[in-house]
Amino acid sequence: MSAIDQTLKIHGLRSTFFRNQVLEIFHKSDYALSLSDIEDYLKEFDRITLYRTLKSFEEKGLIHKISDNTGITKYAACESACSEDHHHHQHVHFHCEMCLKSYCIDVAAVPNVVIPEGYKIFSKEMLLKGICKDCSHKK
Ligand SMILES: [Zn+2]
Ligand SMILES: [Zn+2]
Ligand SMILES: [Zn+2]
Predict the structure, then answer these.
(1) Structural domain of 84
(2) Number of independent structural domains in the chain
């Protein structure tokens, strides 16, 4: 059984050729992918199936959405600790203003934010903006 098959199985998804293909794209990419990025990788696909696949990947804890303020939804692979209805990420997101790619960045600890009493936090997201390591080497 391939690693991809195993990941699907652990997260309660039957392994299909299409799911394998899509998940592999995520595992190969070091930056977050938009719908059109994924479509570029797939040669033949059905749009509805792709939407459904992404939705079930997200629900099952295989990928997560990234909001990088570009107005384009991007997705990135989750760490293995994520499961159905339970994403727990300790990483921040980095958006490069030159290539417009967004990355998941592992950090030792996401800073704790103290908020006034009465507010409840359900999720935490931190977005950093700047220039990524590929772009800073380019100049
Ligand atoms: Zn996750
Ligand atoms: Zn960049
Ligand atoms: Zn991420």
Answers:
(1) 3-138
(2) 1
User: What CATH number has the domain bearing residue 74?
Assistant: 1.10.10.10
- Cα dihedral value 16, 57, 129, 132, nearest 10: -20
C-alpha pair distances (Å), 74 with each of 1, 40, 43, 71, 135? 29, 14, 20, 9, 20
Residues with CB under 5 A from ligand 3 (ion): 76, 104
Interval between CA 137 and ligand 2 midpoint (Å): 9
* Beta sheet of 63-66, edge-to-edge order: 33-34, 74-77, 63-66
What confidence tens digit (pLDDT) does each residue in 87-119 have?
A: 878 789 999 999 999 999 988 778 888 999 999
pLDDT tens-place string over residues 32-45: 999 999 999 998 89
Q: Pairing state of beta strands 102-106 and 91-96?
A: antiparallel
